Amino acid sequence: MKTHLNVKAPSNILSGLFEEKKWISSKFLYDEQGSQLFEQITDLPEYYQTRTEARILLENLSTWKSVFHEPSALIELGSGSSKKTKILLDHVKNIESYIPIDISEEFLADTVTQLQTSYPEIHIQGVSADYTQPFTLPDLKGKKKVIFFPGSTIGNFEPGEAERFLGNIRSLLEPGDELILGVDRKKDETVIEAAYDDAAGVTAAFNKNLITRINREHEASIDVESFSHVALYNSSAGRIEMHLESVRDQVLSVGGHTIEVKKQERIHTENSYKYDPEDIIQLGRSSGFLLQRVVSDEREYFSVCLMEVV
Ligand code: AVJ
């Protein structure tokens, strides 16, 4: 997985460090090392999301079969390695075209080549784009369009951004088209906090990799161990937050500037919003979609939402 973009993104990894409340956009988590660490996160025992979503997809095949009851094009936002998509491609007929959209051109080209070999009868056409910015779809010749946005990536958007983003996606669609959206649900905060602060320390390494990235890209030498990983569920906002907390008073020298950081001061590095079905109904209302169906695991940790264009 490569694209997890926050729309409230400064162009520069450093710019938020000069603000009163220091922050770094979560989009900077995904350099090469960070993308590898995220892949490891998806296999952690505490990180239930990825395996739960895959299981929901696999256990509700009749739902997806009825979505694709006519010749269709499957359009995936932030396709990465298209792991979850294979569940749909393997079991559902009528997917005549698959359009993976990903920001990483190289990665996308490899994925398309591999998939085309495995699925010779499906027309696969990659679009290399930042899907949070306006983009156009190839001509899909009147086929039903189904947008697939799995992985609870929507959680990285601020709520207003999520509305605007889905509103833009809606403008690419026509009545009859649909959206399949994967979201992580609100739940006991100890479960959520453990998922973002695993015992093996992989999520801590993922967060601290931001410091390594600053050191590499801005010839800095910040001590990575001078920050500790903090993951906190903010229940009033319905989101888990990641922070880097300074273990001491320090002055960072980066990009020809100095930045004072106090002991216990935090740099906010990620928000990941959690959505219950009522939140999804609301999000759909303000972006032109009607929630049709919610499929969840038995613990109701994760939901895959089927939304139709209105
Ligand atoms: C890729 C945004 C879905 O929020 O769960 C994982 C990123 N951050 N562990 C998430 C993430 C810390 C992930 N998303």
TrEMBL record:
<dbReference type="InterPro" id="IPR051128">
    <property type="entry name" value="EgtD_Methyltrsf_superfamily"/>
</dbReference>
<dbReference type="Pfam" id="PF10017">
    <property type="entry name" value="Methyltransf_33"/>
</dbReference>
<protein>
    <submittedName>
        <fullName>L-histidine N(Alpha)-methyltransferase</fullName>
        <ecNumber>2.1.1.44</ecNumber>
    </submittedName>
</protein>
<dbReference type="InterPro" id="IPR019257">
    <property type="entry name" value="MeTrfase_dom"/>
</dbReference>
<feature type="domain" description="Histidine-specific methyltransferase SAM-dependent">
    <location>
        <begin position="11"/>
        <end position="308"/>
    </location>
</feature>
<dbReference type="GO" id="GO:0052706">
    <property type="term" value="F:L-histidine N(alpha)-methyltransferase activity"/>
</dbReference>
<dbReference type="InterPro" id="IPR017804">
    <property type="entry name" value="MeTrfase_EgtD-like"/>
</dbReference>
<keyword id="KW-0489">Methyltransferase</keyword>
<dbReference type="InterPro" id="IPR029063">
    <property type="entry name" value="SAM-dependent_MTases_sf"/>
</dbReference>
<keyword id="KW-0808">Transferase</keyword>
<dbReference type="GO" id="GO:0032259">
    <property type="term" value="P:methylation"/>
</dbReference>
<dbReference type="InterPro" id="IPR035094">
    <property type="entry name" value="EgtD"/>
</dbReference>
